[in-house]
Amino acid sequence: MIELKSINKIYNSGKADEHHVLKNISFKVGNNNFTILRGPSGSGKSTILSIVGGLIKPTSGEVFVDQKSIAKLPEKFSALIRQEKIGFIFQKFNLISDLSSFDNIVIPLIPSKIHKSEIGKRAEEILKDFSIFDKKNILVKYLSGGEQQRVAIARALINNPKIILADEPTTNLDEKLSQNFIDIIRKLREKGITILLASHDPLFYNLDFVDDIIDIHLGEIR
Amino acid sequence: MNIKLLEFTLKSLQRHFVKKVSVIFAFSLLVFLLVSVFTISSSIKKELEITVDSLPDLVIQKMSGGRQTLIPSERVYKIANVTGVSNVQERIWGYYYFVNENVNFTVVGIDFDIISYKNNYNDIISFYSDKIDTISTPFIIVGQGVLNLLENNFYKNYYTFTKSSGGKLETKILGAFTSESNLETNDVILMPQNYVREIFDISENLANDIIVQVPNPNEIEIVKRKLQNMFPDCRIVSRTDIEASYQNIFDYKSGIFLALLISAFISFFILIYDKASGLSKEDQKEIGILKALGWLTENIMQMKFIEGIFISLFSFFLGTGFALFYVFNLQAPILRDLFTGASQLKPPFELIPFVDFNILFLIFILIVPIYILATIIPSWRASIIDADEVMR
Q1: Which residues of B21-43 are buried (b: 16+ CB within 10 A; e: fewer)?
Q2: Which of B29, B199, B368, B381 is in Cβ range 3.0-4.6 Å of B312 for a Cys bridge?
Q3: How many angstroms from the chain centroid is the CA of residue A100?
């Protein structure tokens, strides 16, 4: 499902402040696998997720998502792959605070050709699945941390993605909410979604449904 | 058109309305100023065109010591014999100082036995003909502005003139008139010629000036030269001269306004550029989120484009609406005085409702697309940065 081959990422290449963030990274994430990228802050985990999600391009190397090489794709095509196949869960949720839960959830499908009524139906189902249907019209800035987290996950799932990329999803959560998140991830895994999660939270390391843990340190796989 | 995108953009506008208020205000203010100035200018220009159209082809003024003086009426006969001339009339008129309001009225003598060279005077005479035929005492027919000022001073039915000789002349106010051009007739008092002679002490064999009509425009200059040769003590003024003189004054004032407006324009675009180029961190982050969630750069551009169109159209129509209300309903206080010169135009005239749609279109074309570009370019710059970078 996901494959990285000899990925290097260098910022400010050739300049005095050149920064080699990723060094020769290669790994595979199989279909329906739950893989964790483990490592301290600044190790390059988020950069790997950004490359897999097509948000940034590697300086060298190949990236395959669902058997398509995305490393050198023009921005438009990588955006389309994101739109169709990938759901992002961000560290700080990255919700638009003055939009309602419903409006935040449907954002990924706004540019799509899917009909408005179909989008509404999907969003309502997801809101129900995550027990936040009653918060449908409430601006997310008025929601609790846990509710915001569920909105963020719901938004990542609205496009029925094959892959979920989660970047430090529990950093801002207390233990109870972190446990809720793990339950949700478990369910997603059961539904057949491939999950690549970057975290240095020990809560994830001993989960029984984790398929693989990749240790990253200073931009390299240990 | 993606309706979902349109709806999202409208919600975005609603969310950011407070942030956009300063831009909408500046935009509307600029449109308001531009439309006001150009509408006043068009309206006055229209007035001047009407005024110039009603002017005689030539006016003969006798000069003495560099100043205009009364002209012998008998010259009318000599002028009438000049080839090319179709009509000659002596004019008896003068400025009458109305002390109560510190204004000058233009008192024009009418010879009811001949057709005036001014069509609107003929219309007025015709309108009041029944009353004129039956009245034997002195009477006046006044412009709307004069009527208002007289009424303000409780002159409802009669007004008494003080003659140059010191005597009094009581006149009945027969009625008022308006014409297409307020500038021309607002301060006018029409009355029989003999009473005007009495008021200004003009004897029977003299007139203020003589007007000449020359039907063939190509002959006007030739007739003018002939008359100049015939009467070397006279100044011959053609309609073209007066038109040029009006135009010069008008263009001079328009030029000042244009300079002011250019400054306003520059300030506006500095503000817009500042607003637009300084996309806030929040805006940049939002663009980053949208991109990370699968939005294409073109989707973001479409959103910003729609946003720009809404803001600019809303501001344009708001500014234009206010400007038209300001000019035609409120009669453009301050700006109009700057244009016309407050002291010269008493009694006050009303701006005729005349909107030059070419000018409106020009203003639209000048600022709406530029605004859209000025806002869309920074958004495009933000949207082509890696979403990853924008969001960190």
Answers
A1: eebbebbbbbbbbbbbbbbbbbb
A2: B368
A3: 21
pLDDT computed for residue B344 by the predictor: 47
**Residue A76 to residue B297, Cβ atoms within 8 A:** yes
Q: Are B226 and B85 in contact (CB under 8 A)?
A: no
Mean pLDDT score, A120-135:
90
* pTM, entire model: 0.68
Among B52, B104, B26, B28, residue whose Cα is nearest residue B273: B26
Contact B8 A90 (CB under 8 A): no
| Token pair recorded at residue A34 | 């739950």
pLDDT at residue B343 in the model? 43
- List pLDDT tens digits, range B74-86: 999 999 999 999 9
Strands B139-143 and B93-98: unpaired
- What is the rounded CA–CA span in Å between residue A150 and residue A171? 15
Closest-CA residue in chain A for B16? A98
Q: What residues of chain B, 278 to 297, have a C-beta less than 8 Å from chain A?
A: 285-286, 289-297
| Choice among A42-46, A149-153, B134-138, B241-245 with the minimum mean pLDDT | B241-245
Cα–Cα dist B184/B143, whole Å = 9
Q: Which of A152, A146, A150 is nearest to A177 (CA)?
A: A146
CB within 8 Å: A55 and B286: no
